[in-house]
Amino acid sequence: MNDPTRVDTVRDGAVLVITLQRTARRNAFDRQLADALDAALNTLDDDPALRAGVLTGGTDMFSAGSDLASNGDYVTERGGEYGVIRRQRRKPLIAAVEGVALGGGMEVVLSCDMVVAADTARFGLPEVMRGLLPTCGALFRTAQRLPANVARELVLTGLPMDASRAHALGLVNAVTPPGQALERAVAMAQQLAANAPLSVQASLGAMNAMLAMGDAQGWEATAAALNVIRSSEDLQEGIRAFFEKRAPVWKGC
Questions:
Q1: Does 127 qualify as catalytic in the annotation?
Q2: CA distance to 41, 132, 242, 243, per residue, from 239 (Å)
Q3: pLDDT of the residue at 151
Q4: Is the residue at 227 inside a domain?
Q5: How many helical (H) and strand (E) elements, i.e. helices and strands, does the chain have?
């Protein structure tokens, strides 16, 4: 059952609108938020009356990614990290992004099929600024969605990209004025839902299967990279500095 304190779901005809509701923590994922999103996406996949979904974080932000206090406890059986990262979805899911989609928040965006963003939205992978690295698909999915040199820029600098640049590079399908991303995303989802459902699902499955052909190697490479930093002093320093709200002092070991 969906947790109304974490995720809100609204049916708009054949479209399921899913809203993350942990705004006090910038929609950062903990166990409860991951389980709630997992349940909502299970409903989207399993209910034959639903044909498309929209995922939003509300009018102020999309998601800041992982709640570091959760210590990685946000993996679900069916959806993987956050309930969505490794999910084999049958129906299209559109991200409606207002504000920031950072770290795992951007990795959730990369797990969706299309993206609508307000012109004030920002997309980024700041993990290296904390002695971490993206572990939920961004190390290979950014290079699927963006030119390789831009993917490297996002991952290695940690600096965010604005919506206009993301649109120009093809990450974002449509840009709207602030506060209108959800409306545009729902309209797009309704257009998808008006088409023959088996045709949409078969086409989506084929395209996503081709894109995912290198995922196994991508997850292996991500795990290898994580092993390099897992026991490093810099990792511990980055986390301490984050909670202490100060600049980290790196040692390179």
A1: yes
A2: 31, 8, 5, 6
A3: 98
A4: no
A5: 9, 11
Is 1 a domain residue? no
Cα 175 to Cα 118: distance, rounded to the nearest angstrom? 5
**208-230 pLDDT per residue, tens:** 999 999 999 999 999 999 999 99
Domain of 47, in residue numbers: 7-177+197-213
Question: Residue 183 falls within a domain, yes or no?
Answer: no
% of residues, the chain, pLDDT over 70: 98
Amino acid at 148: A
Pull the structure tokens for residue 43: 């409903």
Alpha-carbon separation of residue 222 from 94, 137, 231, 236, 251 (angstroms) = 25, 8, 15, 19, 22
Task: Report how many domains make up the chain.
Answer: 1
**pLDDT at 1 > cutoff 50:** no
We report the CATH number of the domain holding residue 157 as 3.90.226.10
Exposed, middle or buried, 90 (CB in 10 Å: 0-12/13-18/19+)? Answer: middle
Residue 228 within any structural domain of the chain: no
Beta-carbon-side half-sphere exposure of residue 204 (alpha carbons within 13 Å): 23
Which is the catalytic residue, given 77, 98, 127, 244?
127
Supply 173's token pair: 């399908």
